[in-house]
Amino acid sequence: MSSISPATSPPRTPSSSATATSSSIPSTTPASPPPHHEALVSVKRNEDVSKGGAVFVNDRFELTDLREKPQPGEPTSPWYNAGIYTFRPSIFDFTSRLERSPRGEYELTDAIRALAQSGKTVQALELEGEWADVRDPEVLAQLNQPR
Asked: Domain spans of the chain?
């Protein structure tokens, strides 16, 4: 698997003689997908995909499908949607067409799946090291407990 790094610009810092005004506050450029990619989707291996999203990839680690909270018996994947994304503006063409899911929600994952299945390249990027899905307040509270 090749390493994919989002393109970023280093933050600009004001010169030492500049005063802190709105025009001299450092600005950053948001990360954007690599050239020829419409989006990056972060994934973690071997998480319980029934609690989030199962990400299906091809041999180039490009997203081919994304299933939100798959039910027992539905296709599954070892790749869990880690919920960190970067998109090009084309994602808005797909979010504007979203309809409510059976759960009554507008699912960003439906737009990401549609983007990938439209022929656009959505690159998966494996997160390494510790990671926690803070989808529930209880999880966040547990993470904030002293060890």
From this structure: 29-141
Q: Is 0.70 surpassed by the pTM of this model?
A: yes
* Pairing assessment for the beta strands 53-57 and 79-87 based on DSSP bridges: antiparallel
- The Cα–Cα gap between 111 and 99 comes to 10
Is 29-141 CATH 3.90.550.10?
Answer: yes
Q: Which residue's structure tokens are 């698997």?
A: 1
Question: 7-57: per-residue pLDDT in tens?
Answer: 333 333 333 333 333 333 333 445 778 788 999 999 999 888 888 899 999
* 80 phi, psi to nearest 5 deg: -100, 135
Which DSSP symbol is given to 129?
S
Query: Sign of the C-alpha dihedral, residues 55, 57, 61, 63?
Result: negative
Alpha-carbon span 6 to 39, nearest angstrom? 10
Q: How many other β-carbons are positioned within 10 Å of the β-carbon of residue 25?
A: 11
Helices (H), the chain: 91-95, 108-117, 137-143
Among 57, 88, 58, 83, which residue's Cα sits nearest to residue 68?
Answer: 83
- Which one, of 82, 79, 88, 99, lies nearest residue 122 by Cα? 88
